[in-house]
Fold:
Amino acid sequence: MNKKVILFFGAMLLVSGCAGLADYDIDLPGNYSIIRTSGHEITIAPKTDIGWGPAVVPTEIIKAGWNKNYVIAKQKDLEDNELYFWIIDTKTGNKEKYLNKNEFKNKLKKYNINVKMKDVDSLR
Structure:
């Protein structure tokens, strides 16, 4: 009987995996981080003395890129299923959100931001 219980719980552990093993954070300029706390909970937030502050770009970040002055991101809103594009000025903390990809590209040109975005999981 004890062997069956041990085998059962061992099998359950293998099937369920270990929560948190795929979580990560990626340092960005301007004291920001990309933070993954679960499969679809990927945000950009400022670092604090005790961890991270509130998200400046909400979940789910699917692509990101940066240079020393800007962080850019593509976000898929999990509630309305819309795609949004973000520009964060790492010096001032100002952030801009765009629904229209062409408007986003025009702002990248205006601010002289020559950065390619990559899938977030490939950045870690």
Summary: Confidence is low (pLDDT under 50) at residues 9-17. The radius of gyration is 19 Å. Helices lie at 2-16, 101-110, 120-123.
